[in-house]
Design goal:
Elements lengths: L1 H8 L3 H18 L10 E3 L6 E2 L6 E5 L6 H5 L6 E2 L11 E10 L5 E6 L2 E2 L2 E2 L3 E7 L5 E3 L31 E4 L4 E9 L12 E4 H35 L3 H19 L7 H6 L6 E2 L2 E2 H25 L1 H4 L1 H23 L6 H4 L1 H23 L5 H22 L12 H6 L2 H88 L12 E7 L7 E5 L8 E8 L3 H18 L8 H15 L13 E9 L4 E7 L3 E4 L5 E4 L21 E4 L5 E5 L1 H4 L2 E4 L2 E4 L1 H12 L4 H16 L8 E7 L1
Parallel strand pairs: 1-5
Antiparallel strand pairs: 2-13, 3-4, 3-5, 5-12, 6-11, 6-13, 7-8, 9-10, 9-12, 14-15, 16-27, 17-18, 18-19, 19-20, 20-23, 21-22, 21-24, 24-27, 25-26
Length: about 750
């Protein structure tokens, strides 16, 4: 002993240092690190279908988000227990390491589910890696795996295989009596923040039977909603109203939301239509983004249907405004949550919206009760709907916050599904769809009954009205028959008077004695528009030798008024030439202007009429072959023996009107000579202004057409020329109505 002590004291200092280093190294190796001290989770006969390591998981925060699996393997010493993290930063990536050991005596397939937990969406992005005991590393499939997830069409059901690489879910084989290290790379989101690092695992073989029940439930709910969609769409084709259209649109979004809900382990029905792809819209994975879009539109149309059905805009305007504010609030929350990486706490971001919705549902319940009291019997369905769905909405929103009302129920497949957050969401949607379906049918029946009653009342009213009308018509018919007889008698009297007046008017036209021996050829067309008219032609008395006078006048109007005015003009001409024909035609026209104005009392400012005439007066001296004439808007046409067409212009004034003629516009005396072969024609504007069809256009007869006809036939006698003119004029007029009285006087001297 003494020797040993002495020997140790004799050792050099550097030997002592070397021995101390060796002892410290052994001591360090004998104390395991946190990762090496991590106890594995044993999978044995007592392990449930769903299980998770809530005690031994280790976590490392990757703030850069760029660490690879190889980097992480070298940082196992830096991993910490999960409860060492007070909060999860949605901007960081986290690596979770957990060990599993198989005590079952046979290989087992384990599925990793990091996306869904009891509270709903858990981690939005995830990758999983398995490190086996032999050091082999495998990356599991999934939407964010570097391995492209297979399409459902890529799987051949006729080929038997146990290859887990064909799974669309993260699946790995846990070898019997072996330990594996499972790494999970996780990323949260500020809208759907993860609450913990617990990752749900389940035995694939045992879970398949339970999952079948879930698929049956999902398929049943989607099928029922789809049946309602088809039924309401068919009804909407025949009964197009706003409420039914909103209801049908809401049902479509109900169906889409049912198939997009991530019940238990994913959007299985949605995957039938769309492949899982790791794309991103805004800040959300595409599948989560579309789920949010459909959920928002479903809520909007659900409230829109309720508002339209209850008539809140009319009966509850305040609630209508608040429900609109909720839709706007949800729209803003949707935009912020899906397009921005915000840092708003769930307490301020998610909970206010959920509370707001519950208040809106309570408001709907209140409005429905009051509408029933107001007499809207179909509103009782809204009472049932809003009242019965409130508990399920409440349980759904509470489960989102980690409060599971039904978790104390005995555990079985039914209660397991009932505790699912999204099942609790699907139940009120499905129930609301069915109750609303009955309410729509009840509303339709009510409208049909009301419409039927209205139609019956209208038919009875129409029948009564018809009877009343029949009596009234019968009475009116008798009255009309009596009036018709009276009118016929009056018409006959008026017609007889007009016919008699026509005889009188024709009687005032010049007699044959005034024409004989004065013209070598003479013809006239005198056609009043209405049996009697305002045109006339006049010849001075034949009692005196020497020059004689011919006049043509076109009085204002036609029919009885024109005839009365023509009588005044005729009498005035007799008065002017009562002492002989020496009167200058221009002065004679001014005298006619005076007589007509005074004869109608139009020289007074309070006169009730303002009528007159256009006229042409000729003084013919056969001995000297001279014609003196003056006109007021009625021209003298001369066709010489050579066929030359001369239209002698006259003053553009009218006679007898209230406004006196200016000196510059007064008729002017003109003199012309003639030969015995010359043809003279006088026409009123009733001929030249008559409308007819020419090349499918409505145009006036005009002076050009008259000129061509006269030049072509001027060598014939006046009677033949007048007949040709009559025929051409009638053909021209066709079916057009006569516009004015027509007078034509043509002669040769």
């Amino acid at each position: 002993m003494t020797f040993t002590s002495n020997y140790l004291k004799a050792l050099p200092l550097r030997v002592w240092l070397c021995l101390l280093s060796i002892w410290l190294c052994v001591l360090f190796l004998s104390v395991p690190t946190q990762a090496m001290a991590q106890a594995p989770l044993e999978v044995g006969a007592n392990t449930t279908v769903f299980f998770a390591d809530t005690l031994n998981s280790l976590v490392w925060e990757d703030k850069s988000g760029k660490a690879s699996l190889e980097d992480v393997k070298g940082k196992l010493a830096a991993f910490k227990p999960a409860d060492a993290f007070q909060a999860i930063d949605p901007k960081s990536h986290y690596w979770v390491a957990q060990r599993l050991v198989n005590r079952l005596g046979e290989n087992r397939e384990i599925v990793v589910n990091a996306s869904i937990n009891k509270e709903g969406i858990h981690w939005l992005r995830y990758q999983h890696f398995v490190v086996y005991a032999n050091g082999q590393t495998k990356e599991l499939n999934g939407p964010y795996s570097s391995n492209i997830p297979v399409h459902m069409s890529d799987i051949d059901p006729s080929v038997f295989t146990m290859d887990t690489s064909l799974s669309r879910s993260p699946v790995f084989v846990l070898p019997r009596d072996s330990e594996v290290l499972l790494f999970s790379r996780l990323k949260s989101n500020s809208t759907y923040p993860a609450r913990n690092f617990t990752i749900q695992l389940y035995d694939r073989a045992s879970y398949l039977e339970l999952r079948k029940q879930g698929l049956y439930i999902e398929g049943l709910m989607a099928g029922l909603i789809l049946a309602l969609v088809l039924s309401s769409s068919y009804v909407l084709i025949f009964k197009r109203d706003v409420v039914s259209a909103i209801y049908n649109t809401w049902l479509v979004f109900c169906f889409l939301q049912i198939i997009t809900l991530p019940i238990q382990d994913g959007q299985r029905l949605f995957e039938l239509l769309f492949d899982q792809q790791p794309s991103t819209i805004g800040v959300m994975p595409s599948n989560v983004f579309w789920m949010n879009v459909i959920a928002y539109l479903q809520i909007v149309f659900f409230l829109g249907f309720g508002r339209a059905f209850l008539g809140t805009h009319r009966y509850f305007p305040r609630f209508h405004i608040w429900s609109s504010a909720f839709m706007v609030f949800e729209g803003i929350r949707f935009i912020v949550g899906n397009f921005f990486e915000h840092e708003i706490s769930p307490v301020y971001f998610r909970i206010p919206g959920n509370v707001f919705f519950m208040l809106i549902m309570l408001g709907t319940f209140y409005c429905a009760i009051n509408r029933v009291k107001q007499g809207l019997r179909t509103a009782k369905y809204s009472v049932v709907l809003s009242g019965s769905t409130l508990p399920f909405w409440g349980m759904h929103y509470l489960s989102l916050e980690g409060i599971h009302v039904l978790e104390d129920l005995p555990i079985n497949s039914f209660t397991l599904h009932l505790n699912d957050t999204y099942i609790l969401l699907a139940i009120p949607i499905l129930w609301a769809a069915f109750v609303s379906h009955f309410s729509i049918h009840a509303r339709t029946r009510r409208i049909e009954k009301k419409l039927s009653a209205t139609l019956i009342a209208q038919r009875e009213a129409a029948e009564n009205q018809t009877k009343l009308l029949e009596v009234t018509v019968e009475e009116r018919t008798r009255e009309l028959q009596h009036q018709h007889k009276s009118l016929n008698a009056a018409h006959k009297e008026v017609l007889a008077s007009v016919v008699y007046a026509s005889r009188l008017q024709r009687g005032q036209l010049p007699r044959t004695i005034r024409i004989e021996n004065r013209f070598s050829d003479f013809a006239t067309l005198w056609e009043p528009r209405d049996t009697i008219g305002g045109d006339l032609w006049w010849i001075s008395s034949s009692m005196r030798e020497g020059p004689f006078t011919l006049a043509v006048a076109d009085c204002t109007g036609h029919g009885v008024p024109g005839a009365m005015l023509s009588l005044l003009v005729s009498n005035s001409l007799e008065r002017i030439y009562a002492q002989g024909t020496a009167e200058n035609p221009a002065l004679a026209l001014m005298s006619l202007d005076h007589y007509v104005r005074h004869g109608l009392n139009q020289d007074r400012p309070d006169s009730e009429s303002n009528d007159g005439c256009d006229a042409l007066i000729l003084r013919i001296d056969k001995a000297q072959q001279i014609i003196e004439f003056a006109g007021a808007k009625v021209n003298l046409i001369q066709i010489t023996s050579k066929g030359d067409y001369i239209r002698h212009a006259v003053q553009r004034c009218s006679l007898g009107y209230m406004e006196k003629i200016d000196d510059a516009d007064k008729p002017v005396l003109q003199k012309i000579t003639y030969t015995s072969e010359d043809l003279f024609v006088i026409v009123t504007d009733g001929l030249t202004d008559q409308i007819g069809l020419h090349r499918n256009k409505r145009v006036a007869y005009g002076h050009r057409r008259l000129q061509l006809l006269l030049q072509k036939n001027h060598n014939e006698n006046a009677q033949d020329i007048a007949q040709r003119l009559r025929e051409d004029f009638e053909n021209w007029q066709g079916i057009e109505p006569r516009r004015d009285d027509v007078t034509v006087v043509m002669f040769k001297l």
